[in-house]
Design goal:
153 residues, alpha+beta, 4-stranded mixed beta sheet, 6 helices, elongated
């Protein structure tokens, strides 16, 4: 079986795209570039800093899969995953990623709509820290005193 640019055996691609299925693929930098070439128009701008952070984690073995998938609609357009794929290219190493094929093209409207966790929420959920809101506020005030300007945490 020969693999196509989507990383699937050619014989399985039509089935995967139409069946809204998820596959685990070893994404090479070449495959990542190919998928990025199918990026949906009007995607949000690439956050270069985030890509560098992800690439560093991939290169040093610190990359942890959290269950997020690369999303491709049934027309073959990349609708989610441009940062992860760009990080694979920057790291220049293959990374195992899950790819979800066959989504409705309007699904992109629902991606990344969740509220970002605050630092205090992270401390409370990850470390069980009590009074995390007050602790973060205290750190913010202390940093502002030292730096002499407002600080965003």
């Amino acid at each position: 079986m020969t693999a196509n640019v989507a990383g699937l055996p050619q014989e399985l691609l039509p089935t995967a795209v139409q069946s809204n299925s998820t596959v685990t693929v070893l994404v090479t930098p070449e495959l990542a570039l190919s998928l990025l070439g199918k990026n949906r128009k009007n995607q949000r701008p690439l956050a270069a800093r985030r890509v560098r952070e992800m690439a560093r984690a991939m290169k040093t073995g610190g990359w942890i899969s959290n269950g997020d998938v690369i999303r491709i609609d049934k027309n073959g357009s990349l609708i989610d995953g441009q940062h992860r794929l760009s990080a694979v290219v920057l790291a220049n190493i293959p990374v195992e990623l899950e790819i979800r094929y066959g989504l409705d093209p309007v699904a992109w409207h629902t991606i990344d709509k969740g509220q970002r966790r605050s630092v205090s929420q992270e401390l409370r959920s990850d470390r069980g820290m009590s009074y995390s809101t007050y602790r973060v506020a205290t750190c913010r005030v202390a940093a502002e005193c030292v730096l002499g300007s407002p600080v965003t945490i």
